[in-house]
Specification:
By secondary structure, the chain is of the alpha/beta class. Helix content is 39%, strand content 11%.
């Protein structure tokens, strides 16, 4: 029981100390007009970068809580920009607005240049939130880099590669000042998710005094992140050639459907057919025709019968004059 009470007291002490330190630092930086607390301009969001930039793609970086502990993000953004990649830093509180701007400018642009999101601490949580929000609009994110995410949501399925660098510590049970591994969404199990604990998996990046407040400031960590960015944001000409080759390959792989010509309406010609009227054969011809129907032997043996010519009938009419004379003689 005493141990649990001691842990609770220690936790409250750390929380109070962190809150006081945050307020004091915020007041100090506000009075000094610290650039790490300024909002990033939304006009910097663009799906197509100027041709003057050596490489394609845009990198949008989010600082941590109110920006005061993430000055290394500003330095990282400047280094990426010097590598010829368009980069812009934003405040963590701008994550939702930034997501809306990305949707407004990238939606419906299938050939847009690569999108890279980088965040530290609560800014790391923010870039995962941005990815989830733009996913609903059908926008793909090519690379997400998170440094010590604190309370991140699950990774969505619209990201090409998720590169998470974090460090385990005694404060991992607290919802701040920690770094934890990311988990994929249920439908994002195939997303390339690389969770790397610097203290175990990437000891090559480990430096003395490394903690949650300076992980984004360490040169080794920044060098590793820049290498990932340059892999995605290729030289402009190289990217254009790769995209053209991909377009040709997709067009070749897709079977073409031959056009089917629609036949013209066929007109069936009307042929006038007259029923022939058979000529009535003469009597001899009829006899020959009937004879041809008989077997050959019978037809050859039986000659055609000759029909006797008709004898004209004797006139029975007696002129009336002759009848009168005969009657007189009889008397």
């Amino acid at each position: 029981m005493d141990t649990r009470v001691g842990e609770t007291v220690l936790m409250r002490h750390l929380i109070n100390k962190f809150a006081l330190l945050t307020l004091a630092t915020a007041a100090l930086f506000t009075a000094a007009g610290c650039s790490s607390m300024k909002n990033g301009p939304m006009t910097a969001v663009t799906p197509v970068t100027p041709v003057e930039t050596q490489r394609v793609g845009s990198v949008y970086l989010l600082r941590g809580f109110i920006g005061i502990f993430s000055t290394g993000i500003d330095n990282l953004g400047s280094r990426i920009d010097k590598e010829g990649v368009h980069a812009q830093v934003f405040q963590e509180a701008q994550w939702s607005q930034l997501a809306d701007e990305i949707v407004a400018k990238y939606k419906g642009q299938p050939n847009h240049e690569p999108i890279v999101l980088i965040g530290h601490s609560y800014g790391a949580d923010g870039v995962v939130k941005i990815s989830r929000k733009v996913r609903d609009a059908g926008v793909k994110v090519d690379l997400v880099v998170t440094l010590d995410p604190v309370t991140p949501p699950k990774v969505p399925n619209n990201i090409g590669l998720v590169y998470n660098l974090y460090q385990s510590s005694a404060l991992d049970n607290l919802p701040f000042l920690r770094g934890i591994p990311l988990k994929p969404d249920d439908d994002a199990q195939t997303v390339a998710l690389r969770n790397m604990n610097i203290r175990k998996d990437r000891t090559d990046l480990l430096e003395p005094g490394l903690d949650h407040f300076n992980i984004e400031k360490k040169k080794k960590v920044q060098d590793d992140i820049i290498a990932q960015v340059l892999t995605v944001c290729q030289p402009r000409q190289q990217w254009a050639m790769a995209r053209a080759s991909r377009t040709i390959a997709e067009a070749t792989a897709k079977p073409s459907t031959p056009a089917i010509a629609t036949p013209a309406a066929s007109v069936t010609p009307v042929v006038a057919t007259a029923t022939p009227v058979a000529a009535k054969p003469t009597e001899p011809a009829a006899q020959l025709a009937n004879a041809s129907l008989l077997p050959d032997s019978d037809a050859a043996k039986k000659p055609a019968e000759k029909k006797p010519e008709p004898t004209p009938a004797a006139s029975t009419a007696t002129p009336a004059k002759n009848t009168t004379l005969l009657k007189a003689s009889a008397e």
